[in-house]
Each structure stands twice: as structure tokens, then as C-alpha cells.
Amino acid sequence: MVRRTKAEADETRTKLLDAAEEVFFEKGVSRTSLGDIAQRAGATRGAVYWHFKDKVDVFSSMLSRICMPFDEICDDKYCDLPPLERLRESIQMVFESMDGDERRRKVFETALFKMEYVGELEAMRGRHVESSDCSQGKFARDLELAAKGQSLQLPVTSREAALGLHSLFVGLIHGWVLNEGSFPLAVVGRMSVDVYLRGLGFKLAV
Description:
By secondary structure, the chain is an all-alpha fold. It folds into 2 domains: 2-64, Orthogonal Bundle (Arc Repressor Mutant, subunit A); 69-199, Tetracycline Repressor, domain 2 (Orthogonal Bundle). The protein contains 10 helices and no strands.
């Protein structure tokens, strides 16, 4: 009986988060109420408050179901590869995991363009900045190690090179989301990153 009750509770929570994805995308976060989410899920407001503290908790829980790009970069999945290949593959992994995933694109569109990170959501902005700093720092370390490995003198500092690469990475994702996935992110992303790295003077493996 307990297992069934927990299963039902988990199912209700999932339905609420699915509903939140839809309503946040349609109305924006600030214009969505917990009542809107409950109604879309076919649940009560009491059910929402049973599972979540407030709308911020709903939004945070919704995002946690979708691995964010900066977090994927900070993962050490390719730690055994040489620095330059680790850098390229970690970026490509993000592009490929997003490309063609309509649900994930809509969640990112909500997070990027349909909410304001102020007031009660300011703390979430801080977490995003933290993750961004982590991924940019990883870019800088890998670029510096790769340059040493190829006896290459970078035309800018590794930190500046990382900032440029990170801006390219983020810009491609933003453009892909904003244009509703109108171009193949994995193909264009790989090409753009390789052009940038060659511009820094790196020799790339085919």
C-alpha cells in the first residue's frame, strides 16, 4: 500500500512538472500562477503545495530534469582525452544532446527568454553564473594545456581565448533556441568551434 501511495505521489509530481513546462512556455514564468499549473495538470493547488514550496521551487525542479549546458561542460565525462579533444567533444556532446530535442529546446526558451531573474528568482541567476564560470574556467585550462602540448603561443591569453569560445558556445545555443531549432546545431556547432580553434592556431585531428 505504501509503495502504491509513493508511486501515485511521484506520478502527480511528474504531471505537475510536465504541466509547468507547458504553461511557463505559453504564458511566461511571471504570468503563470500555481493555480494555472494545477489546472493544466488536473490537480488541486493543495497538490502543488504538497510537492513544492512555491513557484520558484517548481521552476527549479523543472530545470533540474533537463541537464543544463554549463553543467554538462563541467562534467568530467571526457577526462581521459587529450585537452583539445576533451574540449571539442564536451562541447559537441552538448550540441548533439540538444539538437532535435523539442522538449529541451522549449525549456531552454522559457529559461532564456520567458522569465526575469529578479526578486525571488535572483538566487537562480547566481547559480547559473556559477555554472557559467565553471565551464569557462574549464575551457581556459584545456586551451592552455592544449597550447603547451602543441608548443603554440596563443595570440591572446588562455582566459581571453576561453571567453571567446564560451561566447561562441552560448551564442550558438541562444540562436538555435530563439530560432526554434531552425538549423542543425550539432553540424553548425562543430564547424564553428573548429573554425575558432584553428583561428587561434591549433592543429585539429580530423
